[in-house]
Amino acid sequence: MMAAITVALLGVGIASCSSDNDDSEVPEPPETTTFKVKDLVGTWGLTHSKGWERLQDHSETFNDDFDPENPTSEDATKMVITNPNSNTLEIVLYEWDEFKKDWVVGNSATAELNSNQLRLTGAIMTILSVDATQLVVEFSAGGMAYAKQTYKRMI
Hints:
It is a single chain. By secondary structure, this protein is mainly beta. Helices cover 3% and strands 52% of the residues. Strands 1-3-4-5-6-7-8-9 form an 8-stranded antiparallel barrel. β8 and β9 (145-153) form a beta hairpin. The protein is globular, with a radius of gyration of 15 Å.
C-alpha cells in the first residue's frame, strides 16, 4: 500500500511502505561539495526514492521508482526550485492528484544553500550530486525519517 509522509515543512513525498523491519540507519554523510544555486534552479521530477519512516510502533521501508512525465500514483512528486535572491531558494513541492489527473501544490519552503545543504524546518536536505539532467538528494528528519531521492530535470 502506498503511503506518503511529510518530511519537514517541504512535505517531500516519501513513498511506498514495504516492511516492518527497523532499517533506520542513516548512511554516513558524503564528503562536502559546494554547489551553486543556479545549478539547482528548475523543475525536478522524482524518479526514485529509497529510505525509511519511523512510525509509532515500527519502521517502514520503501524503494520505489516513478515516471514524472507519466505520473500514475499520489506518490509522484515534482519540485520547482526558484532563486528569488542571493543564496535563498524557494522550493515548491507538487504532488500528483489521481482524481484531477494534474499536479497540485503540496507544500513549500524557503531555504538557504550552505555548501551542499539546505536547512528546512525540522529536516536537512543534503545535495549529493546535481548536473544538467539529474539531482540526487538525501533527506534526514531527526531520526524520524530518511530518504535518498533521485530527480530528473523536467524543465
